[in-house]
């Protein structure tokens, strides 16, 4: 975790991209448990629907706004990685992605 002079909270990690096994072709990376726990503590009472947390994300040269979603089974947040980003960064399921996230709403 890094906090900048303007109190922006950011995290960097590497995680495997995977395709959700449900009926849609969503792809995700799982935020490491330790980082998920810290995000949960920092955003307590500030989450949106479904416990989602608004973030800005960068993978490679692609940046976008999205939300992290809690996954009770994993006990961690998951980050959806949209098709345009996967294509721009030449990522497929099973690839490792270097992820930079910035919390949008923090206490």
From TrEMBL:
Stored InterPro entries: AF2212/PG0164-like_sf, DUF1905
Cross-referenced SUPFAM superfamilies: AF2212/PG0164-like (SSF141694)
Organism from which the protein derives: Microcella humidisoli
Entry superkingdom: Bacteria
Pfam family, one: DUF1905
Lineage of origin: Bacteria, Bacillati, Actinomycetota, Actinomycetes, Micrococcales
Name of the protein in question: DUF1905 domain-containing protein
């Amino acid at each position: 975790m890094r906090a900048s002079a303007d109190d922006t909270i950011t995290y960097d990690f590497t995680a495997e991209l995977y395709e959700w096994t449900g009926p849609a072709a969503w792809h995700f990376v799982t935020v490491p448990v330790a980082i998920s726990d810290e995000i949960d503590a920092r955003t307590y009472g500030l989450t949106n629907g479904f416990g989602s947390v608004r973030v800005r994300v960068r993978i490679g040269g692609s940046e976008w706004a999205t939300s992290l979603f809690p996954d009770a089974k994993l006990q961690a947040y998951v980050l959806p990685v949209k098709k345009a980003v996967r294509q721009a960064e030449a990522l497929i399921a099973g690839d490792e992605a270097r992820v930079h996230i910035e919390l949008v709403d923090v206490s």
